[in-house]
Amino acid sequence: MGNVEVAWEDVISVINMVRTHLIIIAIAFIAMIAVMIIVRKKEKLIKRMIRFQSFFAFLLITVVTLNVAAAETLYNTLNVVLSDKGTLDQGHIDNSKKVIEDVTNEGVVMTKNDNSFLPIVPQKINVFGWSSTNPVYGGTGSGTVDATTAVGILKGLENAGFETNSELSDMYTEYRQDRPVISINDGQDWTLPEVPAADYSDKIINDAKDFSDVAMIVLSRTGGEGTDLPIDMGPIMDGSTMDIGTKYTKGTYTNNSKDYDDFEDGQSYLELSKTEQDLVDLVCSNFDDVIVVYNGANAMELGWTNDYEQIKSVLLCAGAGATGFNALGNIISGEVNPSGKTTDTWLKDINKAPYINNIGHFAYTNTDKVSDAAKKAWERADGIVSFVDYVEGIYVGYRFYETAADEGLINYDDTVMYPFGYGLSYTTFDETMGELRASDDGISVDVTVTNTGDTAGKDVVELYYDPPYYNGGIEKSSVNLLAFDKTDLLEPGESETVTLTFSDEDMASYDTYGAGHYVLEHGDYDISLRTDSHNVVDSKTYNVAEDIVYDENTKHNGDVEVADNKFDFVEGDITYLSRKDGFANYDTATAAPTNFELDGTIYGNGTYDPTDYDNDDDKMPTTGADNGLELFDLRGASYDDDRWEDLLDEMTVDEMVDLIAFGGHQNIAVRSIDKIRILDTDGPAGVNSSTLGIFGTGFCSEIILAQTWNTELAVAFSEAMGQEFADYHVTGWYAPSMNIHRSAFGGRDFEYYSEDSKLSAEMAKAEVEGIVNAGMYPFIKHFVLNEQEINRNAFLTTWSNEQAMREIYFKPFEDTIKAYPDGKIAVMSSYNFLGTEWAGSCTQLLNDVLRGEWGYKGMVISDYFGNYGYMDADRAVRGGTDMMLGTAGNDAIMTDLSATSVIAMRKAVKNILYTTVNSSAYENYVPGETPGWLKMIYAADAILAVLLIAAEAALIIRYRKKRNNDQIIVTDGE
Predict the structure, then answer these.
(1) What is the percent of the chain with per-residue pLDDT over 90, rounded to a whole number?
(2) Mind giving me the DSSP string for 889-905?
């Protein structure tokens, strides 16, 4: 379904797992053939008897061997594939569709509306652009959306009462029906199908003019798991991108015309293609009233929309899921007043972004030993060690553009198309800021919002802070989102007072090179009410009299252990962007990499040996004991309850190995402690599991959800999704994804919320609240620094300074964990490396920060365990990952069974058990239940046994009868 692909690593692993069984069956078959040949000269009756017996023996051996394979060797794999699953409740489907439309109603962003052109009454409308007939509904990979029954853009308009020009839509569907595929493993077709302007006949244009005076242009961009959008289309157009040799850059493009190329060297995928530019020219030269709809999650260059006076309105609508495109009709008709706000900064020229030279494919030149060993250990490894430098530090998104403008580095209006937090409405609002009030519970401010227009609408209240910056000191952005809220629907003239609350600790900065802790520096903090990150409504001053250092004596924001420097090994030899002297080092810091030699040691499969890290003083824990406990006895027990040790003593090493290894789409049963099997699965856009064979309603993209700036809707969104998971008896959800939009080219930007850590954190917490309310545990992902898809499985060493890691990239995870620290949620680690340490085995991340500083108690799962030349279960478990996301075991099977390893396994198993026993799966606990598929095998065995016994009996009786008859004949002859 969609781009969810077969994991051939698992297929190969399954074959390897049953190799011995296949050999046994093959030997039995050869033996049977040999016996049949040997007895060919025997007397006919005896020959027939022996041949039948050899066949029965072969059949019996085959059946027994297959039973052993199914009930033992392949038990966990078959248990997930053949699991007992429920069916979707129609009421839940209907609710999901309503929620998706509600979210998209508030998640569509209107960025232009000259002369209040919109809304317009339902009427005839010309919809131009191939994507109008085949829009982007979601992304690829785990975020795939089933579009076969989804409401498209044209249908959404028709549902709102508009009539669309079928001559145009028929032309587009005849031109091409399928959307080019951006695959995880099999290359990326970046083609943007669009009918060349020259192919629009005079008749088609004249008919369109006669049909309606209003035109809409729909343009789309898509991305997905496994690759990022192209920064430079030149190498894709000429085919040289294939020379790179990794699966992440196997891009192709087919021009729409033989007369020209759609892109030139240096143009990015987020610019207009020539065919698209020609279409815009064509439409704007024939229609005075044009609406542009951008259907994409990645912030495209839209400066051209200001170059045409005919373009009256612009709407941003990313992947809208099953019913979200109804929202376009609702908004254009005025049934709904748009209230969405951007979650990223949109640039006029993306080449001006500070990250632009430091995203994409970069490979080290001195790591052949590691990459060669990895390929030897796993022949499908990419054969490179790659890197990406987060050179901009904390200056991500608007934090850079606002600060750079304040420092005089850039001209803001020439650089920024749409600020972060920007969006228009059909009405106007007046916002009045009250005084700051400080108490033991924090700092609060009232904002009174009044609808001063003539249309009911909702407003987003945005509060920012500007901290005191001391030149050359701790890096600080001049604009930082502090708090936000969304009003109810306000009728004209109606007011609502919104109270925003924050803590002074929220304004602290992480001082990597000084105190090594969070620090709230002395001085005046400007607290501003803004309509977006750039435009100020009012502000107040909050003064901090003296520096506050959040150390052992005063921990930061509820930390259990003090936050201090732990990631110096991730910094590398990188020059990071600094505000010092007005960003004096901008050119140096943001330049493309020039050093392609790794300074340090990196390990992969073939070079990492777990026995090198064994401790000879470790003693083998007790296993296989009979302490009379089962897992259910620990439901509700404290993580520190002494009985956990007694329970763990009951498990065998093999059971621990299997529980850790077979964590893909399930959490397996363990017989010694009567643990039941639990199902976990994808995805962030709804039930989407080819492994389990279950699919649900396609939800809109997380960026649409984030653009609502409505946390209440986010709760309802995931609750609705959770109901469908529950219908299928699924308890664990591989989502939500909360990485940061570091780049507009991020392949999974559709699946992540924003460039801003605060907005991402609040939306993530809300989604987690909803899914927990639905009885599930989410796997919040991908922890951490998983902002780039290119080379994500190719030893992607990610370099960042600790301040940026903590203030930007950790924050959504930190805030979510602190809201649910005790077994209610799970965590998914990431593919990439932090410096030279795989994130899935980074003890500083998973043990010291996650479990130490933040006090997390629960399980961590790897991302899909495909080996990739570096994923190693021994390494992962020792570093803090508890379970491997694989369905066939493969390299997730622990191989070092030393005391050191078994001790680490016990910790991992405890974390898994603690989360699962406290989940909804144990609310209606039934111990020792045999899976339905195994019952069917047992039933088939019984039937086959009866048939074999009957056949054997019949054969013997017939043989004896025949033999007796032959003896009688011989006697008579004598």
Answers:
(1) 81
(2) -GGGS----SHHHHHHH
Question: What is the distance, to the nearest Å, from the Cα of residue 875 to the centroid of all Cα atoms in its chain?
Answer: 23
Section 924-934 average pLDDT:
72
- Other CB atoms within 10 Å distance of the CB of residue 334: 16
DSSP-assigned letter for residue 357? G
Residue 649 has pLDDT above 90, yes or no: yes
- Buried/exposed code over 784-796 (b: 16+ C-beta within 10 A; e: otherwise): bbbbbbbbbbbbb
| Pair 778, 368: CB distance under 8 Å | no
Per-residue confidence (pLDDT) for residue 441, from 0 to 100: 87
421: left (phi over 0), alpha (psi -120 to 50) or beta: left
- 520: exposed, middle or buried (Cβ count in 10 Å: 0-12, 13-18, 19+): buried
Q: Regarding beta strands 437-439 and 442-451, do their DSSP bridges make them parallel or antiparallel, or are they unpaired?
A: antiparallel
CB of 686 closer than 8 Å to CB of 698: yes
Cβ-based neighbours of 512, under 8 Å, separated by 6 or more = 565, 801, 802, 803
- Which residues, in sequence order, are CB contacts of 841 under 8 Å at separation 6+? 872, 875, 876, 878, 879, 880, 881
- Cis peptide before 782, with omega less than 30 degrees from 0? yes
Is the pLDDT at 932 greater than 90, yes or no?
A: no
Q: What is the pLDDT of residues 115-127, one digit of tens each?
A: 999 999 999 999 9
Task: Name the average pLDDT for the chain.
Answer: 93
pLDDT tens for each residue of 448-494: 999 999 999 999 999 999 999 999 999 999 999 999 999 999 999 99
Give how far Cα 64 sits from Cα of 20, 82, 937, 947, Å.
Answer: 13, 20, 12, 15
Task: Give the chain's radius of gyration (CA, Å).
Answer: 31
In degrees and rounded to multiples of 5, residue 595 shows phi and psi of: -105, 115
Contact 305, 84 (CB under 8 A): no
Element holding 767 (H helix, E strand): helix 757-773
- Opening angle at CA 321, ends 769 and 1, nearest 5: 105
Q: How does DSSP assign 37-95, residue by residue? A: HHGGGS-HHHHHHHHHHHHHHHHHHHHHHHHHIIIIITHHHHHHHT-------HHHHHH
> In which band, very low, low, confident or very high, does the pLDDT at 2 lie, cut at 50, 70 and 90?
very low
Rounded distance, CA 953 to CA 957, Å? Answer: 6
Nearest to 749 by CA among 714, 791, 706, 802: 706
User: What does the alpha-carbon distance between residue 277 and residue 279 come to, in Å, rounded to a whole number?
Assistant: 5
- Report pLDDT for 935: 80
pTM of the model: 0.92
Residue 340 is predicted with a pLDDT of 98
User: With 90 as the cut, is the pLDDT of residue 974 above it?
Assistant: no
Write the CB contacts of 748 (distance below 8 Å, at least 6 apart in sequence): 139, 141, 143, 223, 224, 225, 737, 739, 789
H or E element: which one contains 460? strand 460-466
CA–CA separation, 168 and 153 (whole Å): 14
pLDDT tens by residue, 585-641: 999 999 999 999 999 999 999 999 999 999 999 999 999 999 999 999 999 999 999
Looking at the DSSP assignment, which residues form a beta bridge with residue 856?
Answer: none
Residue 275 CA to residue 263 CA, distance in Å, equals 9
Question: Which residue carries 């995928």 as its tokens?
Answer: 269
- DSSP letters along 592-633, please? PP---S--S----BTTB-GGGG--TT--PPP-S---S--GGG
Cα–Cα distances (Å) from 680 to 14, 729, 966, in that order, read: 20, 9, 66
Tokens of 32: 């049977």
Please tell me whether the peptide bond between 932 and the residue prior to it is cis, using omega within 30 degrees of 0: no
Element (H, E) at 329: helix 326-333
Going by pLDDT thresholds of 50, 70 and 90, the confidence category of residue 11 is: low
Question: What's the angle, vertex CA 763, arms to CA 759 and CA 764, rounded to 5?
Answer: 115
Reported as a pLDDT band with limits 50, 70 and 90, residue 723 is: very high
